[in-house]
Design brief:
- The structure is a single chain.
- It is built from 12 helices and 12 strands.
- The chain is an alpha/beta fold.
- The protein starts with a strand and ends with a helix.
- The chain is 41% helix and 15% strand.
- It is globular, with a radius of gyration of 19 Å.
- Helix 3 packs parallel to helix 4.
């Protein structure tokens, strides 16, 4: 492959894995960084680093010059579900800047990382898939609302002539999760730090699978939207699987959806002034409560993706978390196998 790729968000979890997949495919990779970006992991890769943020369209345009494909894997992420309007403004403007820069630089293709949280509920007779588009912005979730609005901005740019493909991953786990996204569930169970849980359905996918789908989407594709949901299971099943494989504690307290939303919001309001973490974010509650079975058929058929088995994906994530001290290191392979 002689592809020249720009990865916006390449210092983050999903973006870093896209970088690795591109390098493995033989691409020449440039990564944008902001002043506050943590670059310790990406600096170990043979990539070009350029200074550009989502608020700097001219810098983005220059970074895109002569690129064959641009990956937007670092759009705004609403860490707390507190201020919807501010989050919408930041998120939509950042995506609009990227799309405008891509059109101005005549980028052949933009690949945008969204989420299955933007999917509408599917009919009872089938799994949800790319056809299920919410007709209007969700009103009960800041995370889903912001992600929906940003995705609509990409769709608007595509209708205006930008060659854009949107990928919709489930909850990603695996190496590189420095900020502890979905991996926080593994760490929370193993360390016994989850105070409660809420019933619902989650979709878990190996971040390596998501990265390989992005690389495949960088070339011409039949479709413009691809769901990479991964493996669908109930929240309690996920927690129990983690505890069984790696040890830890599943909390006894089960909250209703309304109780969980209220509890998560109180925790976030308390944590936000110090930019602290919460045991279970409101985003996770929203994803679980609105969770549904999502089909991977299109990404498997059209992009040739084969999903990593759930247990293997969990093992990869746990090994990385233990290596970086987020969970205790197993005393030995035998000790870890006692939990499997």
């Amino acid at each position: 492959m002689s592809m020249r790729a720009l990865v916006i968000g390449g210092t983050g979890f999903v973006g870093l894995n896209i970088v690795d997949a591109l390098l493995e495919a033989g691409a020449t990779v440039t990564v944008t960084r902001r002043k506050q970006s943590v670059t310790v992991l990406v600096r170990k890769r043979p990539v070009n680093l350029v200074d550009a943020s989502l608020e700097e369209p001219e810098k983005l345009k220059r970074a895109m010059s002569d690129c064959d494909v641009v990956y937007l894997a670092g759009a705004y992420y609403p860490r707390y579900s507190i201020n919807l309007q501010a989050s919408l403004e930041l998120g939509v403007q950042g995506v609009a800047n990227v799309c405008a820069a891509a059109r101005a630089a005549s980028v052949p293709r933009l690949v945008y990382t969204s989420t299955i949280a933007t999917l509408a509920s599917s009919p009872d007779y089938r799994f949800a898939d790319e056809r299920d588009v919410l007709p209007s912005m969700p009103t009960d979730s800041v995370y889903r609302a912001v992600k929906w609005a940003m995705e609509q901005e990409v769709e608007s740019a595509r209708r205006a002539g930008l060659d854009a493909v949107t990928l919709l991953p489930g909850g990603c786990i695996g190496p590189g999760d420095l900020r502890l996204g979905t991996g926080s569930v593994i760490a929370g169970v193993v360390r016994g730090l989850l105070p409660w849980w809420v019933d619902g359905r989650v979709n878990i996918v190996d971040v390596g699978d998501v990265a390989r789908a992005h690389v495949a989407a960088g070339s011409k594709t039949p479709g413009t939207r691809y769901a990479i949901a991964g493996h669908s299971l109930r929240v309690l099943e996920l927690l129990q699987t983690i505890a069984r494989r790696y040890g830890g504690t599943v909390p006894d307290l089960e909250l209703s959806a309304d109780e969980a939303r209220a509890r998560a919001l109180v925790d976030e309001l308390a944590a936000a002034p110090q930019k602290g973490r919460v045991p279970i974010p409101r985003e996770f509650v929203d994803m679980a409560v609105h969770g549904q079975r999502v089909s991977n058929a299109r990404v498997e058929m059209e992009l040739g993706l084969s999903l990593t088995p759930l247990e293997q994906a969990l093992d990869r994530a746990h090994a990385w978390l233990s290596r970086f001290g987020f969970v205790p290191r197993p005393a030995s392979k035998e000790a870890m196998n006692e939990h499997v």
